Amino acid sequence: MDSRSPVGEARSLADVSAPGRVAGPEEGISHEELALAARNHGLPLEALRYDVTPPGLHYVLVHYDIPLTDADTWTLTVGGRVRTPLTLDLAALRSLPSVTHRVTMECAGNGRARLTPRPVSQPWLVEAVGTADWTGVPLRTLLAEAGVEPDAVDTVFTGADHGVERGVEQDYQRALPLADATAEAPEVLVAYAMNGAPLPPQHGHPLRLVAPGWYGMAHVKWLRDITLTATPFTGFQQTVAYRYRQSADDPGAPVTRIAPRALMIPPGFPDFMSRTRVVRPGPLRLEGRAWSGRAPVTGVEVSTDDGDSWAGAELSPPDGGVWSWRHWHVTWTATPGPHTLTARATDAEGASQPLAQPWNRGGFGNNLVQRVPVVCL
Amino acid sequence: MDSRSPVGEARSLADVSAPGRVAGPEEGISHEELALAARNHGLPLEALRYDVTPPGLHYVLVHYDIPLTDADTWTLTVGGRVRTPLTLDLAALRSLPSVTHRVTMECAGNGRARLTPRPVSQPWLVEAVGTADWTGVPLRTLLAEAGVEPDAVDTVFTGADHGVERGVEQDYQRALPLADATAEAPEVLVAYAMNGAPLPPQHGHPLRLVAPGWYGMAHVKWLRDITLTATPFTGFQQTVAYRYRQSADDPGAPVTRIAPRALMIPPGFPDFMSRTRVVRPGPLRLEGRAWSGRAPVTGVEVSTDDGDSWAGAELSPPDGGVWSWRHWHVTWTATPGPHTLTARATDAEGASQPLAQPWNRGGFGNNLVQRVPVVCL
């Protein structure tokens, strides 16, 4: 067989787990990035047509392996700086008052593979998004039952997925500031159902956190422990990964809530390989979804000339609530020849999408506008 | 905005839909291939643990777009060389006697991205597989009801997905020889349920063909028409795509049934980026699945020294039936240092997996053994 061993003379975690890096100018997508792209998946953009994303089409990012879990024996512990530590099984959680929130979730790395130079990691283009109805117990209900001590500042969530990342062996952990964890709006959930059914394995079965408005890294899956801490959490996913850095030694700002984005359902029909769209001449409905995790979407503009001119789109009512995407549409009269279509969202804080890439070393929060190449024939 | 238009001066289908090609020696995975990898997805290999693949983890390949379909108004027509053309809605199909078959399905392009040189298309590594319980009406029941004329030779299946491929605009179409379409075993189904629920959109909702033992291209999704023909079908997916060719002008043999393959559940835990596995010293269970669409799997061998030596694995009983994968396992005593694990399946026809790549220009049927790099620490 092939004499190259992919593990070479590896004798330590550092040998199998390299530091983060940026691809060279001529470097194509590597086999390592491809292995992540084959495991994880985005929303096929035509699935923007569904108000709620059907199972299997919602984006998925798993850092390590999907753990083997058993709902019948699963327990969630709540501890640390609380008066009464809790241990809850699924039956106990299901006996508490539940709520359902429709939430649009997006990976913080969405858009990474379109950056130049390209940060080497899960290579998303624009499709790492989805919207689901999540049902569960408000986190503040559990924290009230446990009784948070006055010195608590952070709420640390631990999942059952275990792996190595940049040389650090870890269970996946993220924290929310206590104020966010206990806010009335957006209300953070310990969710046990997605679109009315038990969570699928890849979405955190049997329990996950849902933190409306936050990028996906905050929604800890396979949730097994919640610990209140008196000092800020300094775990790997909080202080090493998921930072907006310009260089390796830049401490960077934390990645938190979702920047505004609009995506278009690519019109017409595709070429298999190039995904270029073919449309017929005449009036055509262009439509899609828009969201922001920071403030409600207030407008979507559409360009059919690659950003030279923009026209306002009609926004549908926010039927899904504040934390769910909104539908938008315009009518375009297609004329023969090539066109590049694009859309951009603006939110109530006045934030919009850039026309030049917002680069950072981890490739986070790249909400550069989508470009949809179309040929009218 | 960026002045490069991705559609350039495109004025015809040929301008947006290039011929098939093979990547150059230094060429990384392109953005076009990545766009396919982000839409379609494989089975995360730890999901080999499930006898039946849960929804959303089964591999998906969609040539064009997932069409928007409505089960309430959907009809399937059966025509061509039959005595009584049929038009059936879902209620009519559900009123007929149904059967459920457990079937392992694999994309014919599985393994393509590991080939050198690499055919440019959907870049699968090894993960394009899944097993489901498919419920529906035997195709031979429908053909008996329609009454096949004696001169019929091919059964042509048309899906609702529409696109362009290598310059040819088309609805997705594939044919089965009449003998295969009407065989008692393997029994071809017109399926309306997957794992006991209506088909998800990406798996052909509301109807698809299921042809046990065949690579995925035969299992036509969003099935809307079955036409019996008196001459062999010469459509694009039959005579242009899905051929084992050595060069562009080689007519090639047709891609038909699934070659034998074993896959291992990668043991231990992974590094996020390299996916290299870390295991602890001592006895360890290595396990996985093995299948062949040509004949029952009769043996699996495992190597823990990158193919220098092999030992037989224990095969579990074929509980899922003939057309479903079988579970296998061995015990391995891990010793500190790097190791490359692999497994290979053999079927009752004596076919096994090659240790050198079986190259062809389309990248089909590459059942080269999987290699799992592991470091024991």
Break the fold down into its secondary structure elements and pairings:
The structure is a homodimer of 377-residue chains.
Chain A: H1 13-16, H2 31-39, E1 75-80, E2 86-89, H3 90-94, E3 99-106, E4 129-138, H4 139-146, E5 154-165, E6 168-177, H5 178-181, E7 189-194, E8 197-198, E9 208-210, E10 223-229, H6 236-239, E11 243-244, E12 253-254, E13 261-264, E14 269-270, E15 277-279, E16 282-291, E17 297-303, E18 311-312, E19 314-315, E20 326-334, E21 337-347, E22 372-376
Parallel strand pairs in A: 1-10, 15-22
Antiparallel strand pairs in A: 1-2, 3-4, 4-7, 5-6, 5-10, 7-8, 7-9, 11-12, 13-16, 14-15, 16-20, 17-18, 17-21, 19-20, 21-22
Helix proportion of residues of chain A, in percent?
under 10%
Number of strands of chain A: 22
**Which fold does the CATH topology of the largest domain in chain A refer to?**
Sulfite Oxidase, Chain A, domain 2
Tally of discrete structural domains of chain A? 2
Output mean pLDDT of chain A: 95
CATH superfamily of the largest domain in chain A: Oxidoreductase, molybdopterin-binding domain
Shape of chain A: globular
Name the pair of protein chains with the most residues at their interface, and give those residue counts.
A-B, 90 and 91 residues
State the CATH class of the largest domain in chain A: Alpha Beta
